[in-house]
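Fold this complex.
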Amino acid sequence: MAVYTHLAAERLAELIDAYDVGSLVSAKGIAEGVSNSNWLIETTGSDGQGARFILTMYERRIETSDLPFFLGLLDHLAAHGCPVPRTIHDRDGALWRTIDGKAVALIEYLPGVSIDHPTPAQARSVGQALARIHHAVADFPQSRTQTLGLAGWDRTINDCGAEALATIDPELPDLAFGELSWLAGHWPGGLPHGVVHCDLFPDNVLMLGDKVSGLIDFYFAASDFFAYDLAVTHAAWCFERGGATFRTDVSEALLAGYQAERPLSSVERDALPVLARGACMRFISSRADDWLNTPADALVTRKDPMDFARRLQFYAAHGDELFAQGA
Amino acid sequence: MAVYTHLAAERLAELIDAYDVGSLVSAKGIAEGVSNSNWLIETTGSDGQGARFILTMYERRIETSDLPFFLGLLDHLAAHGCPVPRTIHDRDGALWRTIDGKAVALIEYLPGVSIDHPTPAQARSVGQALARIHHAVADFPQSRTQTLGLAGWDRTINDCGAEALATIDPELPDLAFGELSWLAGHWPGGLPHGVVHCDLFPDNVLMLGDKVSGLIDFYFAASDFFAYDLAVTHAAWCFERGGATFRTDVSEALLAGYQAERPLSSVERDALPVLARGACMRFISSRADDWLNTPADALVTRKDPMDFARRLQFYAAHGDELFAQGA
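Structure:
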């Protein structure tokens, strides 16, 4: 949550002039994104009526070679009627430009707020929006290898090591290594797949009332099972109080909303308990890595890996029953 | 530069409902202000046409008992045609509300960007806007004691101590203690005074092209000499490269712009070289204090006190000649 780079207004005005969006009126650095700097930009608009955009500067983690994929995906989904922000192309048609050696993209601004405590109606709308994306990617011509899959979690946890993991929580090493073994023996194959979001937490969803107005931050998107994306979303939305409380009403609404648009096959439904445990492992591994390698007082707030350890234990105990009923 | 508090969208929507501004459409935490958290808020507007506001949450340094002064000052200046953001009153007429134990105010959103490298035309506009404020406060009925005056600088520098100051720069202790003695013997009395901004750096001025569109962040405003406020603004605008380069063209334009609206008396003009050295001492003292008491990796970027030591040395060497010609 930060703006990592100071961008002089004079440089920004020049940049905006490379797009057919009118001239710069206002620019506010916004506290969103952990890998990027973002500004909320107001311009006079190409029609003089005023317009707003998000300017993203790619600071870390994201490779410029991945930008045609990430930005092309936004355009593809927007063209298919999904509520995602279009990429604004510059006057030469380019998806991104370079300023002071860093890649920047101008992105459509979408209304809506990110909510903390979803209602069932909101969860239903999220499920529907997710399923529509899974339909819309059918003819998306690009793909990106999933680097944060089972092999990636295993590598991260092993790089952390049992000793360091134990400094986070004494139970974490056994839980993580045990779970990785179990997942390796149970991970499904051959499920319907395509390019999926993989990080659809509430802060990546904009809502107006009960309806999704925007899905944002596709920078973890990769080729994976649709049902895994649903499992990630389920793990991200259906718990409160750090994973300690399961929201049955939100779970049922999310799964019903998804299936109203894209009914799960029986194979997918049977795989959900395993996929949900994998989704938890994905965030346990990255959060443990961040926890051990981020100074306690750094700009980025560390997230507790144990939040997802609790979710994992819930899925291990109740997943079969839960997804058999709800999905 | 940070958002210190997470404010759930649900709480924010309730808060916005206390104002006659329509309902919440969007909220983005913005990276502005060092003592406050700020959000750029979009609502449906009281007329359904959409509207934008800045929501400020007072986190540190600012006492709630000072809010009638700060927020009343904005209203007074806006009513007198100065380009400052009005305070939006809630449905009961209150200037601020309390949320989760913290005071928050909804403030008018003004267009414009903060520039890094002013042109003379921009500096002229800043001088004019400052002088208009000095006229407009004539009938402002409130006042606030200047706590960051000569006595305050002296206390801060003595609290830091010579030993600690030397860790910033070996020359700083002699410079600071010597200057405080000199200022104590030369500080003027009886100059025209009123409530002044006292912190009009480029990042507190919004500009559209060559014109000031907004003066913001009045949270250091206090009763002091008008000419001191002009001296602070001069020290803040007329140097580049950390105080190493003096911009004669910007200086002349700033002083001319100011005097086009409010000509200085000969007594004020004669006092400017001393006031400018005082303005430098004000920022040397607060920056030294921050430097010594802020962890190097904290959220707030530390500013180098030596930037203003260089400015001070410039004013000591050239102030008499400079202000005799330019003012």
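The longest helix of chain A spans residues 266-293.
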